[in-house]
Amino acid sequence: MTDAVLRDHEWQYNPRVSTPDADGYRNRASAASTSMRARRPDAIYDIPYGAGENDRLDIFPGAPGGPAHIFLHGGYWRGRDKADYSYLADTFNAAGISLFVANYDLCPSVRLADIVRQARLCMSAFPAVAADAGCDVGQLSASGHSAGAHLLAMCMVEGARIPVGMKSVTLVSGIYDVSHVLGISINETIGLTQADVPPLSPLHLPLNRDRTVVDVIVGGDESAGWIAQSALFAERCQRIGLDAMLLVRPGENHFSIMESYGDPGHDLARRIVTLCI
């Protein structure tokens, strides 16, 4: 690639480069999450879903016996933490839904394939963990942002089933073809090779045909390359008969869309909650 092509590729597939004030969004999310944890003495932290050090969930309880929702965080598989997303609790708890926020290992300490296995372990353990927390396992749902959406999509692949009976899966600003990571600076940390691409790209893998509602959401102000991935994945889901919809959010970027998600009064948050119950 020429320098100009490399710069454009970085802009297309690195939201921290293409999004104005990316650090501001990150800092606001962290502050809101710190505030949430301070005012939620009922929250339960670091519940194990596996034997690994980072196989942990934070739980923000909703109504006893109510629905349960699990969230997989973003950070391009190399950053962020479940504690950075505590602010999402209000969106779900206001509707009586318990929120489970998952952690996982990060690159370069592990490979992306290891993180995918960890996400699948987390999702397979979710019903039992939700039951132990007093939730209704007949009303389970899931969402993920960015890298978390990729991991959740990898749980939709044949042979890696999301829990049977999951009411909805919401994929927010995800990456579904990891070949694009090969040409950007982030791969210095992630360490993907060409051989990693086929088994780790849900856009090109056979998907389960579970009767689960799938929302594929992306910001209208995200890069054309990022929007295209969401459109292609939604189309792929629809083509195999899933109840899937593409939602391009006008005026939203890769990070502002999560601020909308964390606002219980926002129409995006209300839609996601509606799909959970």
Shape: globular
* CATH architecture heading: 3-Layer(aba) Sandwich
Order of helices and strands: HHHEEEHEHEHEHEHEHH
End-to-end separation in angstroms reads: 48 Å
Q: What's the arrangement of strands in the largest beta sheet?
A: 1-2-4-3-5-6-7-8
Low-confidence stretches: none
| Fourth-level CATH superfamily | Alpha/Beta hydrolase fold, catalytic domain
The number of helices is 10
Rg calculated over all Cα atoms: 17 Å
What about the largest sheet?
A: 8 strands, mixed
Pairing-aware structural class of the strands and helices?
alpha/beta
Approximate strand percentage: 15-25%
Query: Based on DSSP secondary structure assignment, what is the total number of beta strands?
Result: 8
CATH class group: Alpha Beta
Total separate domains: 1
How much helicity do the residues have? 25-40%
- In the CATH hierarchy, the third-tier topology is known as Rossmann fold
Mean pLDDT score = 95
Keywords, please?
10 helices; single chain; globular; 8-stranded mixed sheet; 277 residues; Rossmann fold; 36% helix
